[in-house]
Each structure stands twice: as structure tokens, then as C-alpha cells.
Amino acid sequence: MSYSVAGKTAIVTGAGSGINLSFATLLLSKGCNVVFADLSLRPEAQAVVDKYSSSSSPRAVFVQTDVTSWPDLERMFQAALVEFGDYDIVCPGAGVYEPHWSNFWIPPGAAASRDHPASGRYALLDINLSHPIRTSQIAISNWLYPRRLEATKLATPEKASPQNPKKIIHIASVASQIPVFRAPLYGASKFAIAGFVRSIAPIETYGITVNAVAPGVVKTPLWTDNREKLANVDVAKDAWVTPEEVAEAMLRCVESEAGGVVLEVGAQRTRRVDVFNDPGPDMSPEAGMYTSNGAVGDAEVHSFLGDKTVWGWRSKL
Known about the structure:
The protein is α/β, with parallel strands linked by helices. The chain has helices spanning 18-29, 43-53, 70-84, 123-144, 184-200, 221-224, 227-230, 243-255, 294-305, 308-311; strands at residues 9-13, 33-38, 60-64, 89-91, 166-171, 208-215, 262-266, 269-272. It is built from ten helices and eight strands. Helix 1 (18-29) packs across helix 8, helix 3 (70-84) packs across helix 4 and helix 4 (123-144) packs parallel to helix 5. GO terms for molecular function: oxidoreductase activity, acting on the CH-OH group of donors, NAD or NADP as acceptor.
């Protein structure tokens, strides 16, 4: 825990709301500059950026970013270099939870789907999986082989090393440990993130530490602004995980000298998820790991499967 974020610079995707906004705010409170990379900022995020945009240190800047666009991701990194000269922490945190427009149970070709057969892509996987993988790749490339931007007079950033450590923090999910019938694309993306983090962890020998958090059900607009998701929650019984709890766990991962760590974050509880023989999450309602009314979402899946207009489509080759 010897690493300090004070005086460092972080890039956080999805910082316009939810978990990533809480993490960005926490970093700023610890003296860390933050690049807010998102399509837009919710009012509460705009207030944070406004508060720190005129500060000499730490400072916040907003870079409009479509995380499904690889050129946008490149521009995000370039903006960080222009504004701060270097960056030390990268959080590719932007993610979505199986919205109806990109849902395995509403397949490409169905009228309600925005995943079109001709595109050959699932929007959810572009956001939840391709974006964090590509962002990690760009960060590692720039840290191992730093380049000076010709358009500025800034010095070339120092190469990553154990003496100049760099940090990547990903967001997996409790859904990377347990199956969720109503959200298989989301589950697949989070299983993949956990596996990706563990797989590239040996890069810590180069001074780059890669870790992840695996939150339970977090009270963010991703849930509270969507009735079809909120219907799965028993508000009288189910505990919520707060975004602040997740942000604190993310900071612990950044401060850690160990790589390949996945920290599960529940309601007022955090634990390390073991690679082998892990006992699994606490499934009691007070743990904040699942929603008691999940049968509502499962029933909706069965209604989709019984609808010929959804699953009776045929590709036109």
C-alpha cells in the first residue's frame, strides 16, 4: 500500500456518472488529476469538473469520448498528455448492463434490437469488453514506449518501471462468478474482464499493475433510471452497494503493489476473490450481491422466447 495517488494523473472512462464518477471524485479528493472521458456528463459530474477545472492542482478536464471508437480512445490519451504531460492510472470503467437495445434475448434482426445483423457487432460487448481491452493495450504501449507530442513542448514521459509504477483498474462484477439468466451478454463480458485481468497480471514485472473490482448490485443511474432493471429489486429486502464503497475498493487496488487481484465489493463488505476453490459470493439479501425479484427479469426472457416477432426472425443472406 505504499503507492500514493497524490500528484498523479488518472484517465477514467464512464466518469460522467455512477461508479466511475465516485472513483474520479475520490481521486481528486486525494490530490490526483482526472481526465473525465465519457459521451456526456450528468449534472453531478459536471459540478465536480467545474469545481476542479480552475484548480491548479488537482485538476479535472472533460474529454468527450465514445468508448466504442478506437480513434476516440487514442484522442483521450493524447488529451491527457496535452493537459498533464503524462498519466499514471487508467480506469476503462464505462459499462452497461444488458439494456434492451443490446440484449442476447432480443437478437439482431428483431425490431427492438439496435444490434444489426449486418454490423457483426454487439454494442454491449463493444462497451464492456472491447473498450477496456483496447484501452489497456494503448496504455501499455504508451507506458513502455512513451512518445513526445510534437504539437507541444512537453518532455517525453518517463517509461514505466518498478521505480515509476503505472496502474490499470478494471470493473468486473459479481456476475463474473454467478450466472444471470436475464443478462448473459453482461455476464460474458464480466467473466471475460476478470479472466483478462488475471491473464495479463504478470506485466507487473514491467511496473504496470492490473487489478479489478467485482461489485454486487450498485445503486447507480444504470439501475435507478431503468424501470425494467429496477423491477428485479425488492426494495424492502435487498441491500444496495454504494458507488462510494466500490470507489474505495478501486483505490485499494490502485494502491496495491500486487497485480491480478479481483476484489469483490458487497454492501459494507469487501473480499479478495481467489483463483482456485473460491467459496463464491455471500448470497444473503443484506450482502448486496443479487436481486430478490430476479424472477421478474427471467419471466421477461421467457416472454421474448415465446414471441415469434423476436425469435422467429431469419437472416436474409
